[in-house]
Design goal:
Blueprint lengths: L1 H5 L6 H7 L12 H22 L5 H12 L1 H10 L10 H5 L6 H19 L1 H12 L2 H4 L7 H11 L6 E8 L6 E7 L6 E5 L2 H18 L2
Antiparallel strand pairs: 1-2, 2-3
Helix pairs in contact: 2-7, 3-4, 3-7, 3-8, 5-7, 5-11, 7-8, 10-11
Length: 218
């Protein structure tokens, strides 16, 4: 169940149901307002956590860390780990068009869930859920990491695992503007696929997303 994955049990499940209801479901209370609230809750919790964990960093460094932690891609990855695509309430047409796998829809639902937890239980339960789901990313994720492939290699070597494996799984688009899809595999963990305008960029993006996943699931 989703509540078990979140580590939070709702007293009023209507908050959770609304948080998972996309605006395509006409006639039902959707998650747009709760998403607005969840965005503010997430920003506050992350800002406070970074302020306390990095007392010697200046505003600019804290802002970069904060931006990386609350960006839509990060929310979508957390949502994918929670398997939100199986829980979001979409219209039939939206689901048929692939809405359940849409990163924006998943990240919005993730923010809405945080808002729902805040409404249901207050700031402290919301803080506990956020800090647990984001895990080690809070202290390690920063835009200063320019070479995620090297960081991923160091991560697996420190744990006695084989080196990551990268494979091109798709190439699309015209020759002058191709899009590469690369899969990165780390033993004992789910593979990650990411795209980029070159093989190198796709590998770096895949490595960065894998690092986020690994730090959520140590």
């Amino acid at each position: 169940m989703l509540e078990e994955r979140l580590g939070y049990r709702f007293k009023n499940r209507a908050f959770m149901e609304q948080a998972l209801t996309h605006s395509s479901r006409s006639g039902q209370a959707n998650n747009e307002r709760i998403e607005f609230l969840g965005d503010r809750v997430l920003n506050l919790v992350m800002a406070e956590s970074l302020f306390r964990k990095f007392p010697d960093e200046n505003e600019g460094s804290l802002a970069k860390r904060h931006s990386a932690l609350v960006q839509g891609r990060m929310l979508a990855i957390i949502g994918a780990i929670l398997d939100l695509s199986h829980f979001v309430n979409l219209s039939e047409s939206e689901r048929l068009s692939g809405g359940a796998e849409n990163e924006n829809i998943i990240s919005d639902a993730m923010e809405a869930l945080l808002g729902a937890i805040f409404l249901d239980g207050g700031l402290e339960p919301a803080r506990e859920v956020i800090l647990r789901l984001w895990g080690d990313n809070i202290t390690t994720l920063t835009e200063a990491h320019q070479d995620p492939k090297t960081e991923l290699q160091e991560w697996v070597q420190a744990r006695g695992l084989p080196l990551p494996e990268y494979e091109i799984v798709d190439r699309s688009g015209p020759d002058h503007a191709p899009t590469f899809a690369v899969e990165v595999r780390v033993r004992d963990y789910d593979p990650v696929v990411a795209e980029g305008p070159s093989r190198r960029q796709a590998e770096k993006t895949a490595a960065r997303q894998m690092l986020i996943q690994l730090k959520v699931r140590p």
